[in-house]
Amino acid sequence: MKRAILGSNIFEDCGNIMVVFGTPLFSYSIDGQVKLSFKVLSSPATPPIHIENNDKIAGNVTVKADDKSVSIWLNLPESKVEKKLIELSIDNGTAHISLDLRPLGLNIYSDKNAFHVGGSQLSGNVFKNCANGIVIGE
Questions:
Q1: Sequence-ordered strand ranges (E) for 1-138
Q2: Residue 78 CA to chain centroid, in angstroms?
Q3: What is the pLDDT of residues 40-54, one digit of tens each?
Q4: Helix (H, G, I), strand (E, B), or coil: what is residue 103?
Q5: For 47-96, what is each residue's pLDDT tens digit?
Q6: Which phi and psi angles does 100 have, rounded to 5°?
Q7: SS3 102
Q8: CA-CA distance, 23 to 33, in Å (whole number)?
Q9: Using CA atoms, how far apart are residues 125 and 86, in angstroms rounded to an integer?
Q10: Residue 124 burial (10 A CB sphere; 0-12, 13-18, 19+)
């Protein structure tokens, strides 16, 4: 069973946890090391951000990885600061996901209590055996 936690929501055996305008936002695999793929198209990301299995394909981002976790940081050259967009860590086979797309201008983020999309909050939900857990846009 593939299990992930985003905010306080549980995703079990779902193909994609989150799809934005028809594109999976992220996916992951565990094969000795955690591998994360992450894709945000233009706009809001300029240029688009594309990470494939921890390798940067496009975007002004930095990927930090070890055996049990991966994080993707947006580089903001004007302020010389990095902002974490996503972090995925594995604990006993469960993926724990922290997501914050606010640095890209999207009011989408998670905290320990909920997953926030715009003015809505998803909290304490269980998504099981679904193709796509959360779908934003068409």
A1: 3-6, 9-12, 16-20, 23-24, 26-30, 34-40, 49-52, 55-58, 61-65, 69-76, 81-91, 94-99, 108-110, 115-117, 120-122, 126-128, 132-136
A2: 24
A3: 987 777 779 999 999
A4: helix
A5: 799 999 999 999 999 999 999 999 999 998 777 889 999 999 999 999 99
A6: -150, 105
A7: helix
A8: 24
A9: 20
A10: exposed
Q: 136: which 2 tokens?
A: 């934003």
**16 Cβ neighbours under 8 A, 6+ residues apart:** 24, 25, 27, 131, 132, 133
Q: What CA–CA distance (Å, rounded) separates 65 from 69?
A: 6
The one-letter amino acid code at 97 reads I
Q: For residue 43, give both structure tokens.
A: 């706009």
